[in-house]
Amino acid sequence: MGFLETNGAPLITDGGLATELEARGHDLSDPLWSARLLVDAPEEIKAAHLAFFRAGAVIATTASYQASFDGFAERGIGRDDAGRLLRRSVELAQAARAEMADDGRERWVAASLGPYGAALADGSEYRGRYGLSVAELAAWHRPHLEVLADAGPDVLALETVPDIDEAEALMIVVSGIGIPAWLTYNIDGNRTRAGQPMAEAFALARDVPEVVAVGVNCCAPSDVPAAIATAREVTGKPVIVYPNSGEGWDAQRRTWLGPSRYSAVQARQWVADGARIVGGCCRVRPADIGNIARAVVGAG
């Protein structure tokens, strides 16, 4: 069965992969973030995927969000080896899926392609406006996307995109790639992180056949309902939402502050509002995904 060919039933994607890896005792204060464990502890990445699958997720998002040829090069890893590590991110998720095959449930692997700002490891994915042209961004993303696509994921996750220029570049690169993709923006309120209206941002994906779902991720849960409505109205495509827990990140102290505002009740409402795929991002653990799986499958 192909991705999204599920008779309209809602799908549950995973939560914060890096959050789960940190909970398993790994220090990810590294420019490569969770991608460092592709080198140091790949079995731990597989274990984190399994934790989300066992909780009820049916989509695993790979540990390639912050993986880039540039970032690996700074660690002394050559281009060929970097390509193998990118493919390994897909293979680990596929291996976790294979381990769960006995229960007969359909599951998918989404190859994560993070924004250019993620590779800079300076927080600029929360700002956008990198000073690069659309053509320059497309040229930077293309080799990563081609390697990930060659590894055979079910879908490409073009995620945490902060502005329209980068989305336009990704639409150029994904066209003709031969694998479905989703596009999710990083938003603040009713605008992209770079300040552009959501309607204008979603419109870029409307006529791109490779993009089979649009939505938001890495945002506050309170920002999700308006994004669902706008994405549905502008594109007519299935909507995917996977926000953070709602806690605030203190960059100076490098810690999360405040209470979680992520709940199964909200996720059920997102499905009622028209979201087809729901899950979580930073600070969303397997237990949270289990709660929304039970709530959302009932809603579906």
UniProtKB/TrEMBL annotation:
<keyword id="KW-0489">Methyltransferase</keyword>
<feature type="binding site">
    <location>
        <position position="218"/>
    </location>
    <ligand>
        <name>Zn(2+)</name>
    </ligand>
</feature>
<dbReference type="InterPro" id="IPR017226">
    <property type="entry name" value="BHMT-like"/>
</dbReference>
<dbReference type="GO" id="GO:0032259">
    <property type="term" value="P:methylation"/>
</dbReference>
<dbReference type="Pfam" id="PF02574">
    <property type="entry name" value="S-methyl_trans"/>
</dbReference>
<keyword id="KW-0808">Transferase</keyword>
<dbReference type="GO" id="GO:0009086">
    <property type="term" value="P:methionine biosynthetic process"/>
</dbReference>
<keyword id="KW-0862">Zinc</keyword>
<dbReference type="InterPro" id="IPR003726">
    <property type="entry name" value="HCY_dom"/>
</dbReference>
<dbReference type="GO" id="GO:0008898">
    <property type="term" value="F:S-adenosylmethionine-homocysteine S-methyltransferase activity"/>
</dbReference>
<dbReference type="GO" id="GO:0008270">
    <property type="term" value="F:zinc ion binding"/>
</dbReference>
<dbReference type="GO" id="GO:0033528">
    <property type="term" value="P:S-methylmethionine cycle"/>
</dbReference>
<keyword id="KW-0479">Metal-binding</keyword>
<feature type="domain" description="Hcy-binding">
    <location>
        <begin position="1"/>
        <end position="296"/>
    </location>
</feature>
<dbReference type="InterPro" id="IPR036589">
    <property type="entry name" value="HCY_dom_sf"/>
</dbReference>
<feature type="binding site">
    <location>
        <position position="282"/>
    </location>
    <ligand>
        <name>Zn(2+)</name>
    </ligand>
</feature>
<protein>
    <recommendedName>
        <fullName>S-methylmethionine:homocysteine methyltransferase</fullName>
    </recommendedName>
</protein>
<feature type="binding site">
    <location>
        <position position="281"/>
    </location>
    <ligand>
        <name>Zn(2+)</name>
    </ligand>
</feature>
<dbReference type="InterPro" id="IPR051486">
    <property type="entry name" value="Hcy_S-methyltransferase"/>
</dbReference>
